[in-house]
Protein 1
Amino acid sequence: MFTGQEFLSLRKALDEIPIIDTHEHYGEAWDGPETDLYALFRDSYVTWLAHDEELKDEPGCLLRWLAPARDNAYTVSLVRALRELYGIEQRELDQQMVGGLAEKVRAAYKDKAWAISVLRRAGIQHSIIDPLPVPGYLHEEASFHLALRSHMLVHGYDRAARDHGGDNSFQFAARFGHEISSFDDYLAYVDFWVRHHKEKGAVAIKSALAYERDIDVKSVADRDAERIFDSGTKDPAEQKKFGDFVLDLLAKKAAEYGLVFQIHTGLALQATSHPWRLMWLLDNNPDTVFDLFHAGYPWTQDVLAMASERPNLIVDTCWLPIISPTAAVRFYQEYAEMAFRADTLLWGGDNWHAEETYGAALTFKDCLAKAVSEKVEGGYWTRREGLRYAEGVMWRAAGRWFGIET
Ligand SMILES: [Zn+2]
């Protein structure tokens, strides 16, 4: 019988369990004094929602800016985090409270240790970071592990081309002392790029190309890639071909150097970001571990089909709980039932600042506790079995696949 009692008790238990957060974007300012209340909103997903005016650093403006976005899970999760972290009991914020909150945030960020303390309060012990805006190592923090964003490499058909983050691999290569004039130089540089970061401790290669191109990858012959390299072609089909070649190469490099290949699927360029478009890449690189992001939301059922039979696929619910807590609860339940292998499901925040991650972690634990408690009360699991599954999602799967010890 479903009483809700099990939820309360399990939810409490989850606060005692450590988390390995598989995906964040903390940049240089993440723990610095330039982070204020307005930056926390501006650099959050709330920015992506409807707003009737531009956000200015002023309490009344923030409230008006939030109004059309108030029911969205991004907003609910972030506002809840701020309320908890900064001790605000009143549910509806007014101007005076926002002013007070802005002061509290400013005071908190005077202490460099504040941001990391927020992660620890959320139970997060380790984080895999794809720092924005510049790929590569940025933070000294020992509990941060690098995901190496490698989009720029797909644009080697034109030495002036940039990825959607504005990066150019020929310029990056020069920084590392690599002069690229031939296709072989380029291949050698790709190898260096991956090996160098692996040696510095990277745990993953990352692709968020779903924001700039079709995520589909097809087989491309070496000689075709060589022909297109540095040709300056403007033909989108040729450009894609070169990118396909590089993505397949990166998948092979990931296997060679023992890195996980993290790939964004789901919400992005929606006509070309369906997770099934990755089938060729996955099936032709059986030795590469692919971490499929965002559970492919909104195509979560289709991801379940993929996860039901693929030994080289792990699934990441990073971002999912704050996109849709309802979808996340269902996904945590259904995944357990049909995944090919236990301990292949992960979670990450996918945020720019610690407060947003804190909210995402609370929402994640709510969803996971709801999913598990319903299955315990329904008789599918004992409480002990359900907790074991929850621990798998919170840290054990990430620890195993990324080689991170808690
Ligand atoms: Zn991300």
Note: Residues 23, 25, 208, 350 surround zinc ion (CB under 6 Å).
Protein 2
Amino acid sequence: MSFWWFWTQPPVVEEALDEDLPKIADIHAASFAHAWNVGELARMKAQQGTLFLVARRSSPYGSRTPLGFLILRIAADEAEVITIAVAPRQRGRGIGKKLMEAGLFRLYGERCSHLFLEVDATNETALLLYRDLGFREVGQRKGYYGKPDGGGDGTALVMRIDLR
Ligand SMILES: CC(C)(COP(=O)(O)OP(=O)(O)OC[C@H]1O[C@@H](n2cnc3c(N)ncnc32)[C@H](O)[C@@H]1OP(=O)(O)O)[C@@H](O)C(=O)NCCC(=O)NCCS
């Protein structure tokens, strides 16, 4: 079996391990202005109701580095996206969509009725992904992101997808 075989395999999505957290912190730092460190991620992972997923590709060397991650929080029959990010060099290859689809599949199993998220109104890529998956806008929070780094006025769009 050649090295190339591994690169042609689609990434798999599975629950994050503690050993994934340093790489996840790197991806978070490369994706957001306010980075979460390993300790913060570990506390989040340990919280009841948290679903912490990673996408990874098999490797001939056995190392299965996370390419992206998704954190969801489930409370009663509702859930929210805490965050999602894909490593910059891996974006645009369907990994974000695969993570969200895996999360939605898990939420069906948990009998959740709705999944909510907040997204910066200027985050075109994320909006394309969420709309593509069937999320629709249900509200706005002006100034939610405080003083934004990348333009806009910090408005968050609140989006929801109905699961049942
Ligand atoms: C948002 C993010 C997670 C998307 O991950 P990704 O792996 O790049 O997205 P995908 O390749 O799975 O794209 C999924 C869909 O989004 C849309 N999309 C993504 N990138 C796009 C682009 N550059 N142009 C047009 N559409 C795009 C498409 O609808 C695409 O579906 P399709 O490929 O079936 O047409 C990623 O860009 C990221 O990590 N951004 C920084 C962190 C962030 O903003 N997180 C969201 C916080 S709310």
Note: The chain is about 30% helix and 30% strand.
Protein 3
Amino acid sequence: MQVSRRSFIKGVLIASIIGETDLFGLSMNKAMAESRTLKIEKAKETKSICPFCAVGCSMIAYSTGDGSVNARPSIMHIEGDPDSPINQGRLCAKGSATMQITVNKNRVKTPLYRRKGSKEWEEVSWDFALDKIALLIKEERDKNFITKDSQGYTLNQLPTIAAVGGSPCANENNYLFVKAMRSLGLVYIDGQARI
Ligand code: SF4
């Protein structure tokens, strides 16, 4: 029987797949078994909360990197946390797509600021952004804080600023958020979950 180069390689390949031999030292059986192990097997687990709505489903983010100084962790997979009494490992369609906002070149990672009269947004530091926000709140409060109404009743309100809390905030975060906003006199306070 004449054996061509092509049929020889095909034969060895088939034999290696069914486990009869190794292909040039590479056992396809071992390679196939390896591909069946979970890709998250050696990943680091970090518990988190879905950023989308007030249900507050728990998530586990799996990342590579062993935590050493020069290793840059990168998230490889996100799924529902089976230990959570809220979602018991499940995520809705939106929550299941969280990976797309986590690892996305369009994700905004620094505060953006548009100066008066400018058409462009520029990246600024968190210190700059926080100082700017504090200054604007102070200016607005000094200008529009109402201590009494027309009949002399005490109001102590600042009706020209509204505040919206984030959906992943826990009760404790929201408690502090509302207390801080009320201490400034805000009356229009809401949560993203109701929007
Ligand atoms: S997974 Fe769905 S239901 Fe759960 S918090 Fe996220 S958006 Fe809400």
Note: Residues 50, 52-53, 55-57, 87, 91-92, 94-95 surround iron/sulfur cluster (CB under 6 Å).
